[in-house]
Records
---
Amino acid sequence: MPSDVLRIAEIVVSAFDNDAHTQMTIEARGRSAYQNDMAQGMQGWMASPRSIVMKATDDRDQTIVGFCAWGFDGVPIPDSEDGSTPQLDSETSEEAAEDTQAPKNECVKRLAELETATTKHLLDFMTKVKANGSKRIYIISIAVDPRFQDQGVGSSLVKWGTDVADKAGAFSWVHSSEGGWRFYEKHGFEEVDRLTVDLDDWAVRSSEKQKRWGEYTWRYGVRECAV
């Protein structure tokens, strides 16, 4: 449903409210443009034959409170309850388009360069991790509404995927944000690689008093199949 896509995009933005990399991106590009990117990504994951999006809802009113997108490589994808591909509401698309059509400034250019560097590092890792086995599933993205965090929502979403991996004899991997690593560690993922950058090297500041972002680390974790 279109409303599901928009709701999940809202959750991503709010869940990463204290994440330095996310906030630096939002500051440069605008909140609505960032949220639109999340919604577009969600559409792609839902449409892909090699991924599935699990959502958690509040039993009281069926409001979505969290989600996890899982990718499958060499493992049959479980049947989805809903094979439809949601589309964005036109009003929201137009609102976000106003942000993305604005002239690119130096901040956006530098963020694009950072994204290129981090994406290359991720692709290099994916090439290496394929050597570990032909069966693997991975967490594409996960977020829980801050109001429902620490209530087992994220754990249930991750357990669904790791259970599938265990039954298929596959290992799991994740590319973790800085703040998310301890969560994955608790669920059996072990760090096998990392990328640390100084975000201020990629930021453009108008004055010395402007907020500094500091160092930021992405971690790569692998969970072996529990046989």
Note: The chain has one domain: 2-223.
---
Amino acid sequence: MKTFPSLILSLLIIAISGCANTAKQPEYLTYVKAGDNVPVSQFVDTQGKHIDLAQSNNNKLLILFATWCHDSQRTMKHLVNSNIHLSPNIDIIGIGREESVAALNTFATEYELNFALVADEDRSIYSQFANAGIPRLILLDADNRVVKTIIGETDNPITEVVW
């Protein structure tokens, strides 16, 4: 019976060990770098609205995240408490990795998000940016070129969002 508490402790440690969703974290590879054109420029959000990044002259912030991830949740709270999400000069799109429309709509209500969310149920969008690690923040300029990528597993990655 002494092994049962050890098993529970081990499972708990694995469950809270990060948002890469693996017990052993893989090397984080980022497939885009500063100066690259964004690999995905058209989306359909959870409300059925078509988004074409080329139709906006604003800077853009793409946030690749998951609703269950503590780092993603913390990042969204910091974003909502910042002025970034209020700027008329920045378009924000949250891309829910392996998330459904229903889960993202619930998350948007709970976190009071005022920007478009895109369901990436099969990782087809995410896999063009990275192999592992969420949240990921991708800053784009008005011409949809990558300015900066941030792996948001820090205390407040929003402080790194500058163009």
Note: The chain has three helices and seven strands.
